[in-house]
Amino acid sequence: MKHLILDCGGVIAYPRLGDWNLPFGAAQILGEERARDLATAKYLMAHRECARWLDESQLVKDMEAEKDLRREYIRAMNIRMDWHLTMDEIERLAGDFTDNILRFGFFDDVKPWLERWYGHVTLGLLSDAMPSTLAFMEWQGLLPYFKAAVISTQVGAIKPDPRMYEAILKKLDADPADCLFVDDKAENLDGAVKAGMQAAQMTRSTALPATLWDGPSVKDFAAIDALLKG
Predict the structure, then answer these.
(1) Is the peptide bond before 160 cis (omega within 30 degrees of 0)?
(2) Sign of the C-alpha dihedral, residues 8, 10, 12, 14?
(3) Partners of 217 in the β-ladder
(4) Which residues contact 86 (CB under 8 A, 6 or more apart)?
(5) pLDDT band at residue 39, thresholds of 50, 70 and 90?
(6) 83, 13 in Cβ contact below 8 A?
(7) For all residues of the chain together, what is the average pLDDT?
(8) By C-alpha distance, which of 142, 151, 140, 145 is closest to 121?
(9) Which end of the chain, C or N, has fewer beta carbons within 10 A?
């Protein structure tokens, strides 16, 4: 296999607070009383109503544009949750989400295996994500290992939309038959197979996917390496 294409969430990184949409400093910024709301049904319902601001299928130019969307999301949540946030608190929450890498955890096996593969396997990143994801991977020292990286907010579509797979194949200048795609979501793997790639589901014990895929699976990066060699 000449090319390895990886998703980010569930494969490379995980949300340290258990929710991709929580700023790392949310509890401190909100304060003890308002922070209790984060685990309630009211919060989940409000998030569903406001999630359109965080739509990863829209085009988002850069981190400043992402921060603008986050501000609008927080303003909308503020109304529904009766938090009475000040403008400063809204700004701090938006900035913490967009700029604070601590909301991302990175699995321990990622960097060692990227180092091993670098120069031997062409690496690509394909993720439904906002621009901050690429920044965090850059700050973590991971992005330079990838020949190409495509996120949904650059394309204006999310997986399994064919445009996502077309975009990474074009950037890699790769034949899909020469590609192994690893993602944790079954529907995204189906999309990769339809695009002509081989695929495997990441099923890390600490981040099991909600739906298991009827196809090859890997539990860590060592298992990905075995598939590449097989």
Answers:
(1) yes
(2) positive
(3) 201
(4) none
(5) confident
(6) no
(7) 96
(8) 145
(9) C
> Token pair of 155, please?
């394309």
Six-digit token string for 48 = 């569903």
Both structure tokens of 53:
């601001």
State the residue for tokens 């938006």: 94
Return the H-helix or E-strand segment holding 192: helix 186-194
Tokens for 46, please give them. Answer: 């409000």
Task: Name the burial class of residue 165, with classes exposed (0-12), middle (13-18) and buried (19+) by CB atoms within 10 angstroms of its CB.
Answer: buried
Q: Which residues of 93-126 are buried (b: 16+ CB within 10 A; e: fewer)?
A: bbbbbbbebebbebbeebbebbeebeeebbbbbb
The HSE-up count of residue 143 (CA atoms within 13 Å, CB side) is 14
Q: Report CA 54 to chain centroid distance, whole Å.
A: 12
Helix, strand, coil content of the chain in percent (nearest 5): 50, 15, 35
What is the C-alpha separation between 66 and 132, in angstroms, rounded? 8
Taking only the tens place, the pLDDT of each residue in 91-145 is: 999 999 999 999 999 999 999 999 999 999 999 999 999 999 999 999 999 999 9
A 10 A CB-CB count for 211 gives 10
Spatial neighbors of 171 by CB under 8 A, at least 6 apart, are: 124, 147, 148, 149, 150
* Integer Cα distance of 6 and 224 in angstroms: 10
What is residue 6's three-state secondary structure?
strand
Q: 216, 201 in Cβ contact below 8 A?
A: yes
Q: Which residues pair with 151 in a beta bridge?
A: 127
